[in-house]
Design goal:
CATH superfamily: Alanine racemase
Oligomer: single chain
Strand order of the largest sheet: 7-6-5-4-3-2-1-8
Mean pLDDT: 97
Largest sheet: 8 strands, parallel
Bound molecules: pyridoxal-5'-phosphate
Strand content: 15-25%
Low-confidence stretches: none
Order of helices and strands: HEHEHEHEHEHEHEHEH
Distance between the termini: 17 Å
Number of strands: 8
Number of helices: 9
Structural class: alpha/beta
Shape: globular
CATH class: Alpha Beta
């Protein structure tokens, strides 16, 4: 299957999942996860109409972004070390993986220096995995209160990466928990100041379930580009 055919199938599956949930298919956006994917193959996805990509690794992202058209949009979806905040603030249109105030302060400082606003998501560890990045659900409100004081970050919503399950249905409670958390936080006035709340959740194996549970951004790599070698 070509990247174009994969993309068409993913889009059709996204639309069907949105319909099942009574949602507008326009309310869900595909982030094409392009880690380890060459600029040539990313360009194939671009030719098929995909303009938004997600990258995990800074050096790799920088290299590829410089080789591709400036009209593309890039999300940082990987764990970000604080010493990479400056590079990230200059490179990405959104950082989906803010999970601590120290990192947020650095991103804010560098966005301010660059004279721009940086949209971010707060990454939540809903599966409570000890070794996984993300703020614990019960600590999200406090982090959001601190983020509200940062003038060059726009907190657009939440992101999560549930534990690995071989059956997509098993991830459903995690997706639902993220949505309920976002509603709770929006009710407290801690989310939603910059437009509709974004929920980044769902990958190749479970993006349809995530859409049924309210995802507005799905991060899909393997189903689009094939297995990463
Ligand atoms: C790699 C990655 C994805 C994409 O995973 P696939 O299973 O290949 O679709 C999504 N989100 C994050 C954070 C990733 O690191």
């Amino acid at each position: 299957m070509s990247i174009r055919e994969n993309l068409e199938q993913i889009r059709a599956r996204m639309t069907a999942a949105a319909r099942r949930a009574g949602r507008d298919s326009e309310s869900v956006t595909l982030v094409a996860v392009s880690k380890y994917v060459s600029p040539e193959r990313i360009a194939e996805a671009v030719a098929a109409g995909q303009l938004l990509f997600g990258e995990n690794y800074l050096q790799e992202a920088r290299e590829k972004i410089s080789q591709l058209p400036p009209s593309l949009r890039w999300h940082c979806i990987g764990h970000l070390q604080s010493n990479k905040a400056k590079l990230a603030a200059g490179l990405f249109h959104m950082v989906e993986t803010v999970d601590r105030i120290r990192l947020a302060r650095l991103l804010d400082k560098h966005a301010a220096e660059a004279g721009r606003m940086l949209p971010v998501l707060v990454q939540v560890n809903v599966g409570r995995e000890p070794r996984k990045a993300g703020v614990l659900p019960e600590d999200a409100a406090e982090l959001l209160r601190e983020l509200a004081g940062l003038t060059h970050l726009e907190v657009r919503g939440l992101m999560t990466m549930p534990p690995f399950f071989d059956q997509p249905e098993r991830a459903r409670p995690c997706f639902r928990e993220l949505r309920l958390l976002s509603e709770n936080l929006a009710g407290k006035g801690l989310l939603g100041a910059h437009g509709p709340v974004e929920l980044s959740m769902g990958m190749s194996g479970d993006f349809e379930v995530a859409i049924e549970e309210g995802a507005t951004l799905v991060r899909v790599g393997t189903a689009l580009f094939g297995a990463r070698s």
